Write the C-alpha cells for this entry.
Amino acid sequence: MSITASPINVADQCAKSERPFWRFATEAAKSEGTPFYVYMPQSAAAAYQVFVSSLKCWGKGRVAFSLKTNPLRPLLRDLNQWGSFAEVVSTWEFSQALAAGFSPKRIVFNGPLKTANDLLWLSQHPPLTVNIDNLDELDTIERVIKQSGSPLCVGLRLCPPKENGAWSRFGMEVSTGELDEAVARVLQNPSLTLRCIHFHLGTQIQVAARYIEMIAIVKGVWTRQRLGEDVWLDIGGGFPYDHAVPFDEQTFSPSRLFTSLADAWGPAPRPNLIAEPGRFIAAPAMSIVSTVLACKPRLDEPTVVVLDSGTNHNIMAAFYEHLWVCAETASQASHRFCGPLCMEDDILSGERLSPVPRTGSLVAAFNSGAYSIALARAFIQPRPPIFAFHRDGAYELVQGRETIEHAYPFAQELPQGIRVGSQEAS
C-alpha cells in the first residue's frame, strides 16, 4: 500500500495555544485528565515512508518494525496496512503481531528466548524466519522439527566483533567457525531452510563504520558458503534518532547509510534486505501531554518544574533529551522538568534556558513513542490513556486510563469517591 504523508509540524501545531494540537489537548485533558499519550499516525507514516524509500539505495528490501519498541495496536495495524513486516522477540509479541493483522509469513522471530514449547508452537505457525541465536538453540530446533514433522525457515545471528573492548552476548562467533558449523547443519537438514543471515549492533549507532565492518564479515560468509539470492540479509536496529529535535531536522539519513552499505557490498546482485527500525519510526509517532503541578525556584539551581507524568510513563526521558513544547509560558529562566514520583531521580530533562511554563498549563514531550508505553509501569500512578490525533484536528480515545483492577488485580477496591487520575471509584 502506497502512502503519502509528512510528519506533523510541531512548531506549526504547537507554537501557540490556539493551534490544533493544543485545542485537542485541552479538550482531551477536560475529558480524561492528564497525563495522556498521543499517537500521531501521520508522523508514523512519514517516518515509515522515509525508511522504505531509503532501502532502494541498497536494492530490494523490507522494513520489519520492532514490536518491543512500541506495541500500540493502532500503530501496528497502520504499519501492517502500509506493508511493513513485524519483528518480534517472544511468542507473546508474535501473538500481538497476529492480532494486529500481520501474516505469520511477514513476521521475523528474533531474540535469545525460544523454549522448546515456543518452537513447537512456531512450527505450527511458521513465520518468515526464526533467527537462531546459538548452537544450543539449533539443537532444540532440530529436536522440535523432528518431533513435529513441520519444516521451518531459519536465520542465523552473527555475533559482532568487540568494540572498544566491549563484547556482545548475542549471536554466534564467525572467527571461531561456530557460524559456519551452524550454516552447514542447517543446509544439511531437509526440514530446515536457511532464510537469512542476521546481525544487530545495539542501539543509537551514530556512525556507519560498524555497519560497513559487518557487511564485510557477512559477505565473507556468503562467499565461503556460496549462498544464493534466496537467502536474505537481516540488519537489526540501532538506527539513531535524536529525541530533542523534530523529525525533519534529524541528522541521521537512512538513505546515506544504505548507500554506504551497498558500496561496501559491491555491485548487484545483493541479497534481499530486511531492516528492523524501531526508534526511527516509533519515536516521532507519539507525544505525552502533562500538566504543570508546580514551579519551584531553587537558589543557584534551575527552577524545578513538576509535571504529573514521570519516568514511570516515559523512562527514555531519563536517558535522552526530548522535544518539549509548552502551551503557556512566563518569563525565560533556567529550569528542568521533573515528574511526580516520590524519588529523587524522577528527572525528565536537563537544564533548559527558555520560557518557563505556567503552573496549571499543559506541556507536551514530543518524540516519546520509543519504549514509553512498552516500558510504562503502574508505579504510584496508573498507565495513562492514549489518544490518536490527526492532522485535520480530529482525534479519538483509543485506549482508556488503566484501572486499578488491571494494574493491581490483587489490590482492594478503593473507597467510594476516591479518584484515580480522572476516574472515580464506584
